[in-house]
Design brief:
This protein has 147 residues and is of the alpha+beta class. Helices cover 28% and strands 36% of the residues. It has a single domain, classed as Aminopeptidase (3-Layer(aba) Sandwich), CATH 3.40.630. A hairpin with an 8-residue loop joins β3 and β4. The model has no long low-confidence stretch (mean pLDDT 97).
Length: 147
């Protein structure tokens, strides 16, 4: 079971920020072999959902209120450390993120830009595909909405 923390950018400790950026780089840049600009100056607007196990961030998302990223509330940078995926923490961090959008923004409609290979995972959480697939940083994605 993960300990979930929800923090603004300013509430993150330097160690937490360093750890979540390291995790994002480990998975999105190294594991997925994708060169892209992860540090995008959107972290300052986001709420950060930390999944902590044994005092380490092993799962993470960032969420946005409507109009800060998409026209709807959104969840992005969904990540679980590779050696922790077998515990299904992806569902736990996403459920915490959906709850945080409701609790902090009073919103239930959420838009995401999902990597296509995770389509079933997001469908299981209530997200439905909208539109056609597209490439984002060289990886096939699809827009999805949960109402």
């Amino acid at each position: 079971m993960l300990e979930i923390q929800v923090k603004t950018f300013k509430e993150l400790t330097k160690d937490q920020l360093y750890n979540l950026l390291q995790l994002r780089s480990e998975v999105f840049v190294v594991e997925q072999d994708c060169v892209y600009q992860d540090i995008d100056y959107k972290d300052q607007k986001a709420l950060h959902i930390l999944g902590i196990k044994d005092h380490k961030i092993v799962a993470y998302t960032r969420i946005f209120k409507p109009a800060d990223y998409f026209e709807l509330s959104s969840i992005g940078r969904v990540i679980v450390k590779e050696d922790q995926r077998k515990f299904k923490y992806g569902y736990q961090i996403m459920e915490a993120s959906i709850k945080a959008i409701k609790d902090h923004f009073n919103e239930t409609e959420i838009k995401i830009s999902a990597q296509c290979y995770l389509n079933k995972f997001y469908n299981n959480l209530g997200f439905k595909n909208i539109g056609e697939t597209y490439l984002e940083d060289g990886i096939p994605h699809i827009a999805m909405i949960k109402k």
